[in-house]
Amino acid sequence: RIIAGAPPRAADDVVIDKTTADDEHFAIGDRVRIITASGSAEYRLVGIVAFGEENSLAGATLTAFATPTAQRVLDSADRFATVGVTADPGV
Description:
This protein is of the alpha+beta class and 91 residues long. 15% of the residues lie in helices and 31% in strands. The chain has helices spanning 18-24, 67-73, and strands at 2-5, 13-17, 31-36, 39-49, 63-64. Strands 1, 2, 3, 4 and 5 form a 5-stranded mixed sheet that branches. A hairpin with a 2-residue loop joins strand 3 (31-36) and strand 4 (39-49). The chain starts with a strand and ends in an 18-residue tail after the last helix.
């Protein structure tokens, strides 16, 4: 869940996990360099996420982009590698 800021919407938006934000002293609005297999680029930090009571997923660094940006930087144009779904209890 996003605990600060907003979800990524623009091509240069990124969301990161709270542990990484805290460890690197990042704040909403900062420019952060993200390195992927397709290269390195700077993005505007728009949101910080946590996972229940945890600030990261088993210590992993997490980034999230708007869908078109994720597909471009993860070399997945016009496709998804995984889809995660949650539902309210009883659904």
